[in-house]
Amino acid sequence: MSFGECIKRRRLELGLTQREVGERLGVTDVMIRIYEADQRHPKMSTAKRFAEALDMDFSYLVGASPEALSKYDKAVYDIGKTVMNIVEDACDRCGIPVERLVNNDDCLKNIILAILCSEMK
User: Fold this and answer.
1) In this structure, are 78 and 61 located in the same domain?
2) Which residues of 76-97 are buried (b: 16+ CB within 10 A; e: fewer)?
3) Which terminus of the chain has fewer Cβ atoms in its 10 Å neighbourhood, N or C?
4) Could you tell me the pTM of the whole model?
């Protein structure tokens, strides 16, 4: 499902008009139509705003169509997925619940720094 299809489906589930969604986002209904028609691909920050405005899970919204993101945002998304896979694998090997690390920003930062530093040597 494309980004546009996803947000349109959710908008209709909530019984909202394009104008109402636009008001939540601070844009015109024309802009909402453009996104719903997949004529424009959102930046990551815009996708987050849509998720909040439509009370959706951001990862579901982006996961519905990661190819709809800009190339830069797709790279960031892919890196995030890769890092999470590494963290989950490390947790499995060490017997640590992944939630313990994921909910600890300092710990995640240190893990990411360690990975980057080891790759740059």
Assistant:
1) no
2) ebeeeeeeeeebeeebeeeeee
3) C
4) 0.54
